[in-house]
Amino acid sequence: MYSFVETVNKWYKLKGEPTGKYTRRLLPEGIKLDLFIANRDNWGLIFAIRTGNAKFSHEVLAIGWKKKGFESRNGILFKPDATKTFIREEKELFDLIGIPYVVPEMREIR
């Protein structure tokens, strides 16, 4: 059985490493694959911002956490006093910014 890193490293590297936060690979079928690597403490944040379109992620999610006094650094939300806030499930982010949960397929702003 292959590990995650061994599996990803079988594909042609276009950018990044599977041991970091992001990598882009070219699959044998010619498809470009973007992989955003998360851990237990930031899975919900990474999943929430990487589903739906970029406009939703910025105008709803990022603006929402900024209004609540948070800053995103390396996939973790921080308060100005450097307190970390882990977002383990995406619903936690919606609760944190005070808006109803939006399912991934509805995260679109045109």
Could you characterize the architecture of this molecule?
- By secondary structure, the chain is an alpha+beta fold.
- The protein has two domains: 4-36, no CATH class; 43-106, Beta Polymerase, domain 3.
- 31% of the residues lie in helices and 21% in strands.
Could you list some keywords that capture this structure?
alpha+beta, three-stranded antiparallel sheet, 2 domains, 31% helix, 21% strand, 6 strands, Beta Polymerase, domain 3, 110 residues, globular
What is the gist of this entry?
This protein is of the alpha+beta class.
- Provide the β-strand percentage band: 15-25%
User: Outline, from the CA principal axes?
Assistant: globular
| CATH fold type of the largest domain | Beta Polymerase, domain 3
Overall radius of gyration: 16 Å
> What structural class do helix, strand and pairing data support?
alpha+beta
Mean pLDDT: 96
Instruction: Estimate nothing, just give the exact number of structural domains.
Output: 2
Largest sheet: 3 strands, antiparallel
Give the fraction of residues assigned to helices.
Answer: 25-40%
Widest beta sheet: strand line-up: 1-2-3
Task: Describe the SSE topology.
Blueprint lengths: L3 H5 L3 E5 L5 E5 L5 E5 L6 H7 L4 H14 L3 E3 L2 E3 L5 E2 L4 H8 L13
Helix pairs in contact: 2-4, 3-4
